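User: ok so my PI wants both of these folded by tonight, can you help

Assistant: No problem, let's get them done. Here's the first:
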Amino acid sequence: MRYASSKWRLALLIVMISATIFILSDASFAQSAGAREATVGKPGVFSLVMGNLDFVFWIIFSLSVTGLTLIIQGIIKNRESVMIPPQTTDHIRDMIQQRRFQDLLDFTEADPSFVSRALNPALKRAPSFSSMKEAMETAIGEQTAEQFRRIEYLNIIGNLGPLLGLLGTVLGMIDAFSTMYAQQGQANPASLAGGISKALCHTMLGLLLAVPCLAAFGVLRTVVDRLTVRGALIAEELLLMIKPAEARPGGGAKQTSAPGTAR
């Protein structure tokens, strides 16, 4: 699957366009709100957020940058052309058909693709096919768990977003009601409403952090599951191409010893 024509490039383009539109619209909204502020005194959302840069805001901002980086990396790395490139599979198949087991072992040792990393431990267990199959299954399980661990951070960040937003909201409400208590309940309702609106900005930032991360995690989890299953089926098919050389009686013993000799 080529990246230039894949659905992931289209999805990434849509996300980037949506983010650009959101930033531009928010900036224009902030400018218009700033113009109205001189007349009606109503601050915009952007002004409220930028006027309340506490530690909760910087934590959410840092997690937003991390989440965006993980999303881009997940889109780039979790593709068929990267995990199970067809040219690598065809090259491995040609070497098996030509019984070039030493070259196959060297190639799978250096190649980072899913199929090569699944076959390499199996080739080192030759000529016992049962040991080869067991080693390949272990390698596939380790790779699958590794792929899921890479995107699990998106799930963690997505779940932390609303909690951090709630923390900022609670702190803001505590500050607002502390002001009312200090003034013996005679606080100006306008200043109290302003403090509450600043507190609720943290909730909005937390949701803006959580929604993209959780959505990307759900999509990438499905993609990783599909690609790892496909890679496991391809690796099993290639391993079965080695089995006849091992099971062949008499003259096949010399060919079977090649992978073991490579070890």
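One down. Here's the second:
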Amino acid sequence: MNKLKWVLFLAAMVGMQTSWGSMQNPLDLVQETSNQVLAKVIDKKQELNKSPEKIANLVTDIVAPHFDFQHMSQLVLGKYWRRASDAQKAAFIKQFQALLIRTYAIALLNYSDQAIEYLPLHAQADASKVVVKTEVRSNGAPAIPINYRLHLHDACWKVYDVIIDNVSLVSNYRTGFSNQIRRKGLDSLIARLKKKNGKTTP
């Protein structure tokens, strides 16, 4: 499994609620949500292996509500977001979300009991942004650090970036997408994502 898939796999486990005052510690929520997601995958492993397209629905139901796809899209497109029409923005958000869900689904199918260690959370009680840090260990290999960036959006915690081994998901996509936009334009990028997302299986 490559690093990009790991980013999406682990980031998708993060689920937050409404406010510091009315919810658990974010670290506890990350761990509990992770356990819930993995339990479902393990329970349905044979079914998902036979019908891998079903995992996209599982991801959409559990993962998507906890991501701020609009903010991620804005960060990924950078200056091109400001130049895009409303229709282009909406189309890009839709296809970028589908891309993340598909990539996560593939990684989730490949999960094989990797251990996740949750590090202490350091944040002010009234913070509107937090970083949740974890480390992933597999078969005696060196731990892979995973940092999740979340912010409060509409009174909910939302993931807007993930950093693995000091590589930002947002920055990684921004570099690749900006190259294509410079060469062929935003509409071309959207069309390419739509074609890729149109495949019937993850």
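The CA atoms of residues 76 and 99 lie 13 Å apart. Residues 3-195 form a domain with the Nuclear Transport Factor 2; Chain: A, fold (CATH 3.10.450.710). Good luck tonight!
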